[in-house]
Amino acid sequence: MKLSEKTWFAIFALVCFVYVLLRFWNLTASCLWFDEIFSVHAATHSWNSLFLFVAQDLIHPPFFYVLLKIWISVGGENLFWLRLFPVFFSIIAIIPFVLLSRELKLNLSTITLALTFFAVNGSLIKYSQEVRMYSLLLCLGLFSMWLFVRFLNTGKGFLPFVIVNILLVYSHYFGWFLILTEILAVITLKGEKIKQLFLMFGIMTLGFAPWIYALWQATNINSDVGQNIGWMTKPNLLSILQFVFDLFEPIYFEQSNKDSTAIFLITVPIILIVAMIAVLRLLNWEDVDEHEKRSLYLLTYFVFTPILLAFALSWILPYSIWGTRHLIIVFAPATILAAALFSKKSMKPPLQIISLILILLLFGAAFLLQLTRDQPKYIWCAWENLAQNLDESRFNKSESINVYTFEDLVAYHFWFASRRDSKSNVQIIKVNKIEDLIEDKAYFLPRGFGEVKTTDDFEGESFFIAFRDSELSEKKPPLKNLIAKGYKIGEPKVFEAQGLKAFLFEIQK
């Protein structure tokens, strides 16, 4: 589209503004959930114990938790400050996003369109607000891609490239997939650089060796990765289709398994338009100059190699590693690639303009739908809410208040909610072996964590119980078990969300 450079710069600035606003939208509307609680819990350990605690969890390296510890030491643990941490990295990611696009010799209009796709992506908005390492992975992944392309083009910046990649793999193991992608791209596109890339790989392996040793020690103290990811299913055609929706879904994201996977009336047309543009580009491939082809090849490597590696390894390894959040490293090159397809060489100007207008209208419709959608309540917020319902006067007593739970997930949430009150003398106890009570094994108490006690039975004359179910019945456990033991059941405090109810009961003899 023929607009002046100043006009495109103004549009670019507006897109950046929208990008930031969307990441602050409803930032504190929901409480912390299980994995975010683990992040804060890990970061509040002492420096001596933090690395061992994280190593025992096995599935994530420590760099994110180190940075979060520093962040908490500056601003504390209030919800806004915690959620601002991932937002900070998602905003910083704009810098390498633009630098990568410029290194690929894209013009300002294409960069602006790419950033628009990037700004409104629902999954990216979601993971920019979670107190997890995914926005850090996105940010460092973009820096790595930019420095890699810069190194290919100029031969400069090898040292910062190596340093960023070491930080990348210390942020998430999927960072290694990006490293392998870069090596593969050098082998096929610019073989004379391969010695430097293998040197980088060797330095990174040596730099990562201390963490490998820490993981080896953790596996010797009864840490089993199957407990962490054994619930993940191996990817199939439906998984691939869902991931494609995640790549192009604007504004909306699936927050829990009770939500719809996508807004199909919005996302299907967007995907069809992009697919049409891709086909037209392929049909006019002879008109594409060599430099542009090289940029498209690089972007294709960045998008498809990590996806193929994750897919193949999920079937080869004992456990699947497939997940949208892990593959966040491909979202930026995917949006840049999609924007690069919209070129006057691949279609006539009227078709180009109509396609872009349709996509922007669909983005606007997605925003309006989300704006008018009721803010959902999530069942994991029940435990923080119910913890506040414990009689405040009880905290002045010297004896401990016992709260019995029946799931690790509930125990961990309740413990975290009560620990944040300096006056709290609440003791959370997990009861095992309650027949007919089903527990979600995807969530478990952290290894090396002993502040939640475990038992096989109830003790004491007075205590509380906390559990969740679709309905309340004294003919079902745990109330059935307590009544059989002669306990009296008090009036419940109830929190209802997502078709489930969470209960807090006072129990007395």
Keywords:
7 strands, 509 residues, 58% helix, alpha/beta, seven-stranded mixed beta sheet, globular
Give a short overview.
By secondary structure, this protein is an alpha/beta fold. It contains 21 helices and seven strands. Helix 7 crosses helix 17 (331-341) and helix 11 (175-189) packs across helix 16 (290-316).
How would you describe the overall organization of this protein?
This protein has 509 residues and is α/β, with parallel strands linked by helices. The chain has 2 domains: 5-372, no CATH class; 379-508. The chain contains 21 helices and 7 strands. The chain has helices at residues 5-24, 34-43, 47-57, 63-75, 79-92, 94-103, 108-120, 122-129, 134-154, 158-169, 175-189, 194-219, 225-229, 237-248, 264-283, 290-316, 331-341, 349-372, 382-387, 408-419, 479-484, and strands at residues 401-405, 426-431, 453-455, 462-469, 488-489, 493-497, 500-508. Strands 1, 2, 3, 4, 5, 6 and 7 form a 7-stranded mixed β-sheet that branches. Strand 1 (401-405), helix 20 (408-419) and strand 2 form a beta-alpha-beta unit. Helix 5 packs across helix 8 (122-129) and helix 11 (175-189) crosses helix 16 (290-316). The longest helix has 27 residues, at 290-316. The radius of gyration is 25 Å and the shape is globular.
The number of E-state strands comes to: 7
- The total tally of domains equals 2
Distance between the ends:
77 Å
Compute the CA-based radius of gyration. Answer: 25 Å
How much β-strand is present in the residues?
5-15%
Spell out the helices and strands N to C.
Answer: HHHHHHHHHHHHHHHHHHHEHEEEHEEE
**Oligomeric state of the chains in view:** single chain
Task: Indicate the structural class.
Answer: alpha/beta
Helix content: 55-70%
Instruction: Enumerate how many helices there are, as a single number.
Output: 21
Shape: globular
User: Sheet bearing the most strands, described?
Assistant: 7 strands, mixed
> Mean pLDDT, rounded to whole units?
91
Unreliable residue stretches: none
